[in-house]
Amino acid sequence: MRIAAAGGTGLIGRHVVSLVEQAGHEPVVLARSRGVNLTTGAGLDAALAGVEVVIDVSNVTTLSRKRSVQFFTAATSQLLAAGARAGVRHHVALSIVGVDRVGWGYYAGKLRQEDLISAGRVPWTVLRATQFHEFAEQLLARSPGPLVPVPRMRVQPVAAREVAARLVELALGPAAGRAPEIAGPQVHELVELVRQLVRARNQRRVVLGIRIPGGAAAAGGGLLPAGDYTRGSETFSEWLRSTGPSGAASAG
Q: Which pTM was predicted?
């Protein structure tokens, strides 16, 4: 079976492509580097020829509400329309736990994505996941100086590969609508995770917890699963040990 991965060159997308191959199916990567523009639709019809399932893990790096809504509206609309033309029978998308409780600009785009998918003609499944273990490292990279400001929030980080595995599992089954959320095995304060990361990387930096506009819901647990959910197995500490002091994942 041909399974397309929108955003298949990103963090989750690379895992999705690998797992699709391991399951004996043919992955089709939808990305600009492969001649496909999700927001304009260029190259989509040709890429989706013979595709039965689309797994959408596409993303845009922004804090802007306007840019996020524009990206996810365009990309999702193009994917759904092209999928309907190609006869895609299942559209699977990755979203975020708490996206409807935490009012950040980026989340508005993800909510728009969910709305478009649920109203579309292609049978669908949406999986909401908590932040990945790599989230702490991404925050660290955005603050290259000696002081690292980190939003105060409670998180339940999950392994990216476990999220990808769940997406592929869902993709190989019937459309399920809103699937049970997926989260990691432990709840943490994000500030403490970044401090652990700084120590593990042997860096002399000060991590400062800050309150950000609209962050009260996240600080109060708005990003944690609220009901039944799939619990991942890899802890943040295990992920941290696997990356080594340089930050590169160890072999195996």
A: 0.94
CA distance 107 to 102: 7
- Structurally, how many domains does the chain consist of? 1
Q: List CB contacts of 149: < 8 A, sequence separation 6 or more.
A: 143, 208, 210
Rounded CA-CA distance 36/30 in Å is: 6
pLDDT (average), residues 47-51 = 98
Burial category of 189 from C-beta neighbours within 10 Å (exposed 0-12, middle 13-18, buried 19 and up)? middle
Does residue 249 belong to any structural domain of this protein?
Answer: no
- Res 215: pLDDT: 83
- Domain range for 77 is 2-243
Which tokens go with 186?
A: 């432990």
Q: What does the pLDDT read at residue 252?
A: 26
* CATH code of the domain covering residue 135: 3.40.50.720
240: tokens are 């941290």
What distance in Å separates the CA atoms of residue 132 and residue 163, rounded to the nearest whole number? 9
Angle, CA of 7, 8 and 11, to the nearest 5°:
85
Does the residue 248 lie in any domain? no
